[in-house]
Amino acid sequence: MRRARKEAAAAAVVLDTGAAHVHIACSEHPDMHTIPNAIARTRQGVRRQVLVGDLIESECQDYGGLQLRQPMDRGMIVDWAAQKSVWDRALVKALGCKTTTDTFGLLRGRTVIVTEPYFALPEQQRAFDMLLFEWYEAGAIWRTTTAQLIPWSLTTPRPEALLVVDMGHSYTHAVPIIRDQVVWDAVRRLDLGGKVLTSLLKVLFSYRQWNMMDETYLTDKMKCSSCFVAACARDEERRRFPPQDASPSSWSFEQLVEMFHADEDNAMVQQYVLPNYATPEDVADPRTKYGHVLSGPAAYDTPTLPEDELDAFIAGSTTPSQHVASTEHQVLRLGQERFQLFESFFAPKRIGLDQGSLPELIATCISHVPEEARDMLWTQIVLVGGSARVPGLRRRLSQELRMWAPDDVPVQIHVPHDPIEASLHGARTLWQASPTSEAGRCLASHLVQRSAWLDAGGSHAPPGERGGTTLGDAHFGGWNTT
Prior knowledge:
Elements: H1 2-9, E1 12-17, E2 21-26, E3 32-36, E4 39-41, E5 50-52, H2 55-58, E6 67-69, E7 72-73, E8 76-77, H3 80-95, E9 111-115, H4 122-135, E10 140-144, H5 146-149, E11 161-167, E12 172-178, E13 181-182, E14 188-190, H6 194-208, H7 216-226, H8 253-262, E15 270-273, H9 280-284, E16 292-295, H10 310-315, E17 331-334, H11 337-340, H12 358-367, H13 371-379, E18 381-384, H14 393-401, E19 413-414, H15 422-432, H16 438-446, E20 448-449, H17 450-455, H18 469-475
Parallel strand pairs: 1-9, 9-10, 11-18, 18-19
Antiparallel strand pairs: 1-2, 2-3, 4-5, 4-6, 7-8, 10-20, 11-12, 12-13, 12-14, 15-16, 15-17
Helix pairs in contact: 6-7, 15-16
């Protein structure tokens, strides 16, 4: 049995496909990989390049005006040819292959856990199965969602019920999970994600300073390393300015705005040097190829920022950068943009979005689950996704949810060490578990074997029928499970 367990673990792959990135891991190697889910083309010139997936990060010589062809739009795969190209690169990187010229049968005999969008259309589900079984020849698959893997990434004992808030690139979903099953009738969506925030930041920069409308990639990097969330919307005592002894992490949104009205060059301002790709040093140095902070609070590049470092990140006095900006460099000033951007989650109407706030989304979701599970969900809220990394979010969300929760129920919000790769940790727990354990039985119950899929008709089904995908409807626990 021990040998069988080892062989099973040695043939497992998890492929978490998001609109911005593809996250992948395999059981042969401990490393987890996150690569851009895009095909990029640099602007015309001597160094014109077309790059796929991880090559965008490792080989691109000019991120200025980078044109992105993204396979996913509004949470759905709309370009399967591009998606397959990115998957090919991801699999080659994770499995240690030498070439992507022929990826047919690359997953032959392997167990594959692949994530799909929430409420994926039936045609999309069928396309997932066809590509994995017919081209990559996977031995067995579990087509699931990111939220369904999160409970297995948590420390034991796992909670019987929890609420996963997936703050993705296209949308933000609140997904309740009870006894490892998604309560699909209670899932709620906010039409706000990282893509909208990046676009909004481009507009703010372009209106106030430099034209950044073609700099999506660089703007997204700045958003991820410089923005934060204010402690609250307004001070309880209605003070325009915070007390002198108040820590920056306790400043309200209104106080931050007033501080900028009083002094535009306060301690929160970052002077961000944009890279000059005509300078070889800027391209070669990983610390400057996306730009860097010349003065002001230092940017962070860790998966999450420890809360004891939040004050220094917001308005800490930092030493000037060792990199000196020449006259050829453009300097971008990050001031109110640092805290205005993510305020949209708490006041969507500020950007013209006629929906409730993130706290209201969570409260509405919890109100639609069975009554006996609601109290537990308030104490088991897990934030995942790229936007879950923003400093100050957990504290602000906890404070605002307190007004929505019952008085006698505590509100507890958990953020994994790496909110982006939490699903990979959950999948790894499943395939490393003993077949007789709870995790092992859970994985086995959700898998669909390739032979069974082919026997059920595979992809050869008349119009209107699902062929082998009907097996997934019964096993995967998706929204259209029968």
